[in-house]
Specification:
The protein has about 80 residues and is of the alpha+beta class. Helix content is about 30%, strand content about 30%. A hairpin with a 5-residue loop joins strand 1 and strand 2.
Length: about 80
């Protein structure tokens, strides 16, 4: 059984740097981009597909105004 790890994720959207925490077993670049878009546009249909390639996810995030996505294991 895999252990859930807490991550802190940060991104830049319209000059604001929101952040949130997420419990996951592992975290990839695409998952980080997808979760940032889901967080930024929780009440909207403007989300990035979970199955998108890394380049497609990056392009979609940039078009939505989401940049500088960073995450680290939360302590």
């Amino acid at each position: 059984m895999s252990e859930l790890v807490p991550y802190a994720e940060h991104y830049l959207l319209d000059g604001v740097r929101p952040h949130f925490f997420k419990l996951v077993e592992q975290f990839s670049d695409v998952e980080a981009i997808h979760s940032a878009s889901a967080h930024a546009f929780a009440q909207s249909d403007r989300k990035i597909a979970a199955h998108a390639s890394l380049e497609a996810a990056r392009l979609s995030a940039k078009q939505l105004g989401i940049t500088h996505i960073r995450w680290n294991e939360a302590i």
